[in-house]
Design goal:
Helix content: 10-25%
Strand content: 25-35%
Structural class: alpha/beta
Number of helices: 5
Number of strands: 36
Number of domains: 3
Distance between the termini: 84 Å
Largest sheet: 13 strands, mixed
Shape: globular
Amino acid sequence: MRVTRNCRSSKRGLALLYAVFAAFTAATLVSVLLSTSLSSTRISSIKTHGGQAEYLAQGAIEVAKNIVRSEVAAWRVPAASGTTVINGTPVDYTITQISPDGVASNIKPWAMGDPPVIRTDASGIQTIITSYRISATARVQNNAATAQRLIHAEAIPVFMYAVFYNTDLEINPGPSMTLAGRVHSNANMYLGCGATLTLNTNYVRSAGDIYRRRKDNPTASTGTVAIRNWVANPFNPAEPLSYFNMNSKGQMGAVVTSGGYDSQFTTGHDANGDGDFTDVGDWLPWGPGALAYWQQPTGYSGGTGSTVKDATHGVTAASPPPIEAINMFEPGNSGVGDWTLASGNWVHTPGVGTHQKGFYHSNADLTIVANATHTGWTAYDKNNVDVTAAIPTGAVTLSSIYDARQGGGSGGSATKVPTMKVNAGLLATSTAWPTNGLLYVACNNKSTGTYAKGVQMTNASALPTKLTLVSDGALYLQGDYNTTGKKGCAVIGDAVNLLSNGWTGAKAKGSGVPVATATTFNTAIVTGNTNTNPGSTYSGGFENLPRFHENWSGVNCTITGSFVNFWLSQYATAAWGSSGVYSAPNRAWSYDPLFNTVANLPPFTPMTVTAVDVVCW
């Protein structure tokens, strides 16, 4: 019996021991599991916050990259550091300019006077390279991430394009027109012609879409548009010359319902339904088709490429300088500048004014400004020294011009635009002639309509040096320009108007349109424009980018240079129209291949800038 009781007691003790051990084991397992869970949560949290920090740092790099692009385009040195806010979190970044060998550098952008690093392609187009190292650090709770990137700011002087538009580019001439040189739009491109438009180039680019129709009338798709197949150097006459048509709606037949062969032709056309686009009557969809149809000619051994590309092919916008670059004045940094507007006139108030000069105004060796009441004018140099006395008698006079596009009212002087007339030949005899080749001219107190005011340049067939003429208002070039001993020249204004050698100034409201005589303008043109809105009146398009005021029917208007539209006009804002204004000329317009070389460019040539990633770490 005793033995039996002891066995039962032992069994109860052993069971208790097992129970205690099991409880301990379970508790330990729970503890381990809980610890593992908390550790996993912490790791997950670290990963999440670390990922967020990395995302924020990369976002700040993109912000800084865009700052570099816009600052270089505006001829400014990007600030060395800054802070941006992304999703409510501030992120610091630094921007360090480096030399090509990777060493930190304080070299200024090319337009500021330092030697450029230049890359030249097969066609002679030169790209100016500036290198920057960008670093950004972001923190999310206790987690930090740093991102770094080396980028190239690639600046192409805009006059290396035959045509450059920051807005929609419309080319719809009535008569045939041939364009040679690079054609670029930062927005959409609309191509058409009453006869034949020929693009003799290896570069037709749109950062938006390319349309084979009019912008103001989507159903109008007319004429022939012939675009050259890609060759490495279209300026070389030895290169093969072949074209492929960008077909209109009519030329495509039943294949399209609107437009023609363009960015909207996204599905292609399989004529026999065999599942490919290789048979007669087939058309590739626009994306691969544009690359195939305008590639190099069969058997060409000079390389590979394609002339026509849009956003579908990765084309992006190139930053132009801001319109503030041509303004007389802009608000001063931190509210403190050197100039103040008093009774309609700008007064030099060193260091205590509200405004400072715009880029071109501040860099001009000679500035001539008509006062607000248009009763007098003043000339001064880059250091604000009055040099009016050095200007020859008759070199600057105050006048007016009948601009039927801007004119209004019932007649008389109310219909005329006040102008300041500058005789370039006389001015060139002065010691005040700008030695750096930058002349800024303007009229104070501008508005729109006949109050737009403008500057009329005369007697400019022979210029002593390269010259960039800039105004924030309308420019009127009268007679042959830069034709004797041609030099690198540019005119930049709110609107650029071309007057022939036959212009007498007698045109008035109701007098009819005077007859033009053949005239040549050897200059790059940068001008504002008015937009065409879908369904609205046509703005005049590229063929009327420079404005006309005479009957040019059958008369040659010869322009050799570059055609640039960066901005919408601020003052000369009247809508395009030809009735009572002008008749179109024979447009003998061409790109000047001398601009392919940086040394031949006009002084202070604007640049378009893209920012390209080189390496990230």
